[in-house]
């Protein structure tokens, strides 16, 4: 059991770390695009520094490894869900996450594998932008969509992770504007560079011929990596479908086993056995704080178990750490982690339902407030 | 309008409708071909440098919109959570929470749109793209606004938060159906404009609009029967049954709503320019129908008859009707694309209509005030009226007199004001009327001086609370129980039967014998050889016995007591007794008390004194002297009371 708990904690960290690696790469890439606001030459000049490291062998290994780990963990997270109770932001992030690989795989292949299949392929920004803006606009539209999809996925993930940390008070004012300045400026750079490329194609027939020739080389290689790409995508699709099927099976197989949880204030919630207390709250519209939407990070959903503690799933490593961090007393649990395994569970919600991220950053303030409110009643 | 003109007008309408339907048929015929063209040209224009640029700008705008809204929610989200997690205890509280939610969520949607529209001006858009983006942003705003409003009003799955009366089990499906209809209407409004503007596809746009509006009509038509057809659910029906005056609708609502939907659709098909107006009228009618239920929904918790609810629901209802009507007029003006000022300066017919509108507004206002006053008065009256006629009127009986007076006066005043201001609003000069009324008033005032004096002093008697119905009063030579009073006079019933009608003007000082308490004193003469202390004790006992009497006891404020010896009379010791009772009860008590004292004194050897003559001498002289002494005593004795 302890082993499982350790794995869960490790997975959580791995998801964050791999996500951060991917975010670093994307930020570098978009920063490079931003320079298009100045000129195509500036983009080229900055490319070795912003993109270069990722083209080295360790860079590629790190990047590909992070991508694979992140995708697999995402699929695993989907499969291990117990219900479809999620916040709207979570749905958006989940969907964006799952459409990313199919949208992005073409671009990744074209940039990394094309260079190896066609030895003299020269993946400069000028080349690629020329192809996008003039020869294959559908790819450009796809890439613009990818920026939106990937960046929103990353922004939601980064924000909901960072906002819970005390450091957010200091960096929040900087990170939030950056979170949107980067993609906006990158897309503006993309548009400006596009104008420049189109003008250059019209003005310099030599360059145009050179680009066309290169494009021909890539086109020849296309068929080879199209097959590989299709196979990878099929594998990914199977994994995602399996995760969904697993989730559906889990929901359907437990749908007849009902449990009820009693709350303070005379409220109660009914639902499938095995759901967490928080999921039952949300299913039954019981007001319940959940800043991190059930990831066990923020501690705002914590409850004092009044009865039936033995019919809740035991606390795991991650939950214990969070409880310790927020200074929880004995007999308190995280509602998002404590799954209800039997009848007769009664809990008291400890934070007001409108608790926000500040409750996670400074747990003392909110519980103090709560205690004062309780004493006043 | 002559028959000829009427027929001509109808022919014109029918011809217009025919042309319109033919145009629709042409649209339908042309649309498939045009749609294919649009698709092709869209693909072609998108798959080019300019297309990519436009698309990139669109994505940038999306980022900007999301960024602004995200920033907004970092501040507003905990407020929203607080609103969402509060559990309202009454519909009124739910309304307050709903309004707060509307402001919070609406601001988010508005900021998103405003940011997109504002920033969109900064880009050099490809040909026709900017208009497309603006229409798209407006479409998104319309959809989001519909969503926000519907979910706040119907609150699917959270019955406590509903803002309108509806079966909680069906709010979710109702919200979805309504959202579908609104989305179709929004699509039908915006998308054809986009198509027409961006691609110049007239027929395809018209066909799309036709399809969307027809589908929306169908959805609304079916929904009218599904959601408004059946009698209300048992849970909801329990409350109206408690209300005494619950009325069945004159017309099945579902049928009426369906007719409205179809009528608007028919107007749109035949004469699109009038459709917006027809829609506004239909919405106003539908709202006016449902408004009563909606307003009373907020007072459903008090499971009381309607009269006890007070004036508030009635006032709110008439205000709400007023607001809906005004909103409808405003929306109609917007729909007709004309300002009210322009109407006022326009043709005489429009001017007359506008003036009639002014009169309607005045009438609504007067109606609101009248309902407020009337229901306040009725409510007060219902509260203070004695439950049974036998029961003596309480201290509130003054209000019982004044309130109906107030009601009538207010009614007359309001009516006069309404008539005068309506005449003024219609443009009829009322100054001569007022001046004439002034002169006539003066004349009547001189003639009816006494009447005025009576009325004014009557009001002051009432304000002074000099007497109330049921009280025994005396004023000058008039005395009796107050039976009733009017604006001019008071009616007194003398205890022997005659009824006085006294104008207030001559009433003068009033002695009220029925207020608070009375003190009654009794004097009894006992012989000089009686034991005074014993007599005191006996009187005290009698007083206790009377106070314990089941019938009379409750009228005592202070029991009967002997105060002491009042006087040494010629042949008796005069002892004085006193008691404090409720007004009007002293007579009965006094009779009983005297009887009991007699009995008690007799049993205990205390003798009542009566004139005795002690004689010394012969029998003859005795008789004559006794007679003389008796005459002497009798002459001194005061006349028996009464």
Assembly classification:
heterodimer
On the 0 to 100 scale, the average pLDDT of chain B is 80
List SSEs of chain A in N-to-C order. HHHHHHHHHEEHEHEEHH
What share of residues of chain A is helical?
55-70%
Radius of gyration of chain A: 25 Å
Strands ordered across the widest β-sheet of chain A:
2-1-5-3-4
Query: What overall form of chain A do the CA principal axes indicate?
Result: elongated
Largest sheet of chain A: 5 strands, mixed
* Distance separating the two termini of chain B: 86 Å
Physical arrangement of strands within the biggest beta sheet of chain B: 4-3-2-1-5
Q: Any idea what the shape of chain B is?
A: elongated
Order of helices and strands of chain B: HHHHHHHHHHHHHHHEEEEEEHEEHH
Helix coverage percent of chain B: 55-70%
Question: What is the tally of beta strands of chain A?
Answer: 5
Terminal-residue CA separation of chain A: 42 Å
Structural class computed from helices and strand pairing of chain A: alpha+beta
Share in β-strands of chain A: 5-15%
Give a count of the beta strands of chain B, DSSP E runs of length 2 or more: 8
3D structure, described in words:
The longest helix of chain A is centred in the middle third of the chain and has 49 residues, at 205-253. Chain A has a five-stranded mixed beta sheet. Chain A contains 13 helices and five strands. Chain A is α+β, with helices and mostly antiparallel strands. By secondary structure, chain B is α+β, with helices and mostly antiparallel strands. Chain B is 66% helix and 9% strand. Chain B is built from 18 helices and eight strands. Chain B has helices at residues 3-46, 49-85, 91-120, 129-154, 171-199, 202-228, 234-242, 253-270, 275-297, 312-335, 340-345, 348-384, 397-425, 431-447, 449-464, 532-547, 586-603, 619-636, and strands at residues 472-475, 478-485, 489-493, 499-503, 511-512, 518-526, 556-568, 573-581. Chain B is elongated and about 160 Å long. The model of chain B is unreliable at 232-246 (pLDDT under 50). Classes of the chains: A alpha+beta (377), B alpha+beta (642). Chains A and B meet through helix 6, helix 7 and helix 8 of A and helix 2 of B.
């Amino acid at each position: 059991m302890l082993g499982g708990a350790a794995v869960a904690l490790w997975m959580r960290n791995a998801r964050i770390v791999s996500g951060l690696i991917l975010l670093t790469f994307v930020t570098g890439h978009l920063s490079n695009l931003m320079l298009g606001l100045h000129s195509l030459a500036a983009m080229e000049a900055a490319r070795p520094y912003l993109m270069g490291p990722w083209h080295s062998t360790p860079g590629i290994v790190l990047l590909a490894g992070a991508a694979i780990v992140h995708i697999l963990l995402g699929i695993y997270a989907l499969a291990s869900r117990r219900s479809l109770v999620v916040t709207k932001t979570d749905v958006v992030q989940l969907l964006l996450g799952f459409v990313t690989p199919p949208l992005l795989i073409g671009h990744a292949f074209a940039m990394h594998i094309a260079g190896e299949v066609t030895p003299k392929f020269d993946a400069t920004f000028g080349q690629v932008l020329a192809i996008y803006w003039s020869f294959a606009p559908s790819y450009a539209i796809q890439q613009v969509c990818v920026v939106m999809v990937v960046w929103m996925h990353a922004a939601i993930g980064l924000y909901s992770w960072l906002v819970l940390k005390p450091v957010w008070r200091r960096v929040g004012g900087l990170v939030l504007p950056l979170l949107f300045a980067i993609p906006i400026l990158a897309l503006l750079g993309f548009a400006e560079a596009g104008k420049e490329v189109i003008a250059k194609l019209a003005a310099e027939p030599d360059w145009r011929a050179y680009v066309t020739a290169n494009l021909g080389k890539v086109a020849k290689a296309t068929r080879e990596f199209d097959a590989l790409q299709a196979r990878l995508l099929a594998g990914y699709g199977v994994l995602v479908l399996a995760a969904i099927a697993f989730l559906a099976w889990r929901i359907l197989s437990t749908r007849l086993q009902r449990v009820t949880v009693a709350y303070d204030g005379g409220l109660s919630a009914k639902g499938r056995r095995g759901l967490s207390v928080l999921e039952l709250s949300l299913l039954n519209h019981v007001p319940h704080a959940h800043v991190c939407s059930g990831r066990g990070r923020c501690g705002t959903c914590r409850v004092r178990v009044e009865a039936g503690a033995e019919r809740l799933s035991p606390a795991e490593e991650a939950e214990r750490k969070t409880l310790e961090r927020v200074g929880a007393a004995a007999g308190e649990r995280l509602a998002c982690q404590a799954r209800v395994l039997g009848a007769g569970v009664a809990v008291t919600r400890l934070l007001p339902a409108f608790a926000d991220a500040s409750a996670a950053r400074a747990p003392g303030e909110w519980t103090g407030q709560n205690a004062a409110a309780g004493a006043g009643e | 309008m002559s028959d000829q003109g009427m027929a001509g007008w109808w022919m014109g309408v029918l011809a217009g409708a025919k042309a319109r339907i033919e145009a629709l048929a042409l649209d339908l015929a042309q649309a498939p071909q045009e749609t294919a063209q649009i698709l092709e040209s869209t693909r072609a224009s998108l798959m080019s440098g300019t297309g990519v640029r436009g698309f990139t700008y669109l994505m940038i705008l999306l980022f900007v919109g999301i960024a602004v809204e995200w920033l907004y929610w970092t501040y507003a989200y905990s407020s929203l959570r607080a609103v969402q997690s509060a559990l309202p205890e009454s519909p009124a509280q739910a309304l307050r929470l709903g309004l707060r939610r509307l402001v919070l969520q609406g601001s988010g949607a508005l900021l998103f749109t405003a940011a997109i529209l504002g920033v969109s001006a900064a880009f050099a858009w490809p040909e026709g793209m900017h208009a497309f983006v603006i229409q798209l942003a407006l479409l998104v705003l319309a959809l989001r606004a519909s969503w926000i409003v519907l979910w706040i009003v119907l609150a699917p799955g959270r019955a406590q938060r509903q803002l309108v009366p509806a079966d909680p089990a069906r709010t979710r499906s109702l919200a979805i159906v309504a959202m579908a209809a609104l989305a179709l209407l929004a699509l039908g409004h915006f998308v054809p404009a986009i198509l027409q503007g961006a691609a110049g596809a007239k027929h395809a746009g018209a066909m799309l609009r036709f399809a969307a509006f027809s589908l929306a009509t169908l959805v609304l038509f079916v929904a009218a029967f599904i959601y408004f057809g059946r009698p209300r659910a048992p849970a909801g029906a329990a409350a109206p049954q408690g209300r005494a005056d619950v009325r069945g609708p004159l017309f099945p609502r579902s049928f009426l709503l369906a007719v409205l939907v179809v009528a608007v659709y028919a107007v749109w098909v035949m004469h699109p320019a009038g459709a917006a107006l027809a829609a506004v009228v239909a919405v106003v009618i539908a709202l006016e129908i449902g408004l009563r239920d909606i307003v009373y929904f907020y007072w459903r918790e008090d499971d009381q008859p309607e009269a006890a609810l007070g004036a508030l629901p009635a006032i709110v209802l008439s205000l709400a009707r007023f607001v809906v009507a005004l909103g409808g007029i405003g929306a109609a003006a917007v729909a007709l694309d004309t300002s009210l000022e322009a109407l006022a300066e326009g043709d005489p017919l429009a001017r007359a209509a506008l003036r009639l509108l002014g009169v309607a507004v005045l009438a609504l206002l007067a109606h609101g005030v009248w309902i407020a006053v009337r229901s306040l008065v009725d409510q007060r009256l219902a509260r203070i009226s004695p439950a049974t006629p036998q029961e003596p009127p309480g201290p509130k009986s003054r209000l019982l007199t004044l309130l109906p007076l107030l009601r009538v006066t207010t009614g007359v005043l309001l009516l006069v004001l309404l008539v005068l201001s309506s005449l003024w609003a219609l443009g009829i000069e009322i100054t001569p009327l007022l001046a004439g009324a002034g002169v006539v008033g003066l004349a009547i005032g001189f003639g009816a001086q006494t009447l005025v004096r009576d009325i004014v002093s009557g009001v002051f008697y009432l304000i002074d609370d000099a007497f109330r119905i049921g009280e025994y009063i005396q004023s000058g030579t008039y005395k009796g129980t107050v039976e009733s009073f009017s604006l001019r006079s008071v009616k007194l019933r003398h205890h022997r039967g005659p009824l006085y009608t006294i104008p207030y003007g001559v009433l003068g000082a009033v002695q009220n014998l029925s207020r608070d308490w009375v003190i009654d004193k009794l004097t009894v003469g006992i012989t000089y050889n009686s034991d005074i202390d014993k007599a005191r004790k006996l009187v005290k006992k009698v007083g206790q016995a009377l106070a314990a009497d089941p019938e009379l006891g409750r009228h005592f404020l202070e029991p009967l007591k002997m105060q002491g010896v009042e006087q040494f009379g010629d042949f008796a010791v005069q002892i004085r007794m006193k008691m404090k009772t409720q007004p009007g009860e002293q007579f009965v008590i006094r009779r009983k008390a005297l009887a009991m004292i007699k009995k008690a004194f007799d049993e205990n050897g205390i003798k009542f004194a009566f004139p005795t003559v002690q004689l010394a001498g012969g029998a003859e002289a005795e008789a004559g002297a006794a007679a003389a002494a008796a005459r002497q005593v009798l002459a001194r004795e005061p006349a028996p009371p009464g």
